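Anyone up for a design puzzle?
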């Protein structure tokens, strides 16, 4: 069984601890919401889980059937969606999707055409990403996270920039990918993580 273990981890910027003495375990089929107000360090924790930024103390471990996975292999297992992650703006939508799948293919034999229909953006396939609305960009990021071949999905502020229709699309599609994955949602909006029975409140790890 795949597991992410946090053992007394801490992260600080200059002399300020963002979180400290944080221990937790994430498993498949057990979605978890990381909660706390804006600026509390939720995004920093998510990036630490992804291996994108180093922690200052403690240990993050990825294990599969009790075998430790090297940190340089973590990216092969996970997909990450966040408003601050950049897309290649010069690409069209179709080019962006095709480029992505060269590195991380879609699950269930989904092809580019299928994926664009899932996004409900097929009529925009030849439009440059630089001309997308913020909601379209967010939907693309979420779709790539949901439907790529992965075992771990990290969602930071998942419905940022989405209108009501986009929010309903998010809930419908996240429900489709919950099974047999580790899903972690960082949010201060309860409606974004209604499917998460377990919560990790980052304010409990302020020192």
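Challenge accepted. My sequence:
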């Amino acid at each position: 069984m795949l597991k992410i273990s946090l053992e007394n981890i801490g992260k600080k910027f200059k002399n300020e601890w963002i979180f400290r003495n944080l221990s937790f375990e994430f498993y498949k089929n057990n979605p978890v919401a990381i909660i706390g107000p804006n600026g509390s360090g939720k995004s920093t924790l998510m990036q630490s889980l992804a291996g994108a930024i180093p922690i200052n103390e403690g240990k993050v471990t990825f294990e599969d059937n009790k075998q430790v996975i090297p940190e340089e292999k973590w990216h092969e297992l996970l997909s990450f969606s966040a408003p601050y992650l950049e897309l290649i703006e010069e690409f069209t939508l179709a080019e962006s999707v095709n480029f992505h799948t060269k590195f991380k293919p879609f699950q269930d034999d989904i092809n580019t055409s299928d994926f664009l229909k899932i996004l409900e953006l097929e009529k925009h396939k030849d439009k440059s990403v630089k001309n997308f609305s913020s909601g379209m960009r967010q939907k693309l990021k979420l779709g790539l996270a949901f439907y790529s071949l992965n075992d771990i999905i990290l969602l930071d502020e998942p419905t940022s920039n989405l209108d009501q229709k986009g929010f309903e699309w998010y809930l419908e599609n996240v429900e489709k990918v919950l099974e047999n994955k580790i899903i972690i949602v960082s949010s201060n909006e309860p409606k974004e993580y209604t499917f998460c029975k377990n919560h990790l409140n980052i304010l409990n790890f302020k020192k």
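A detail worth pointing out: The mean pLDDT is 95.
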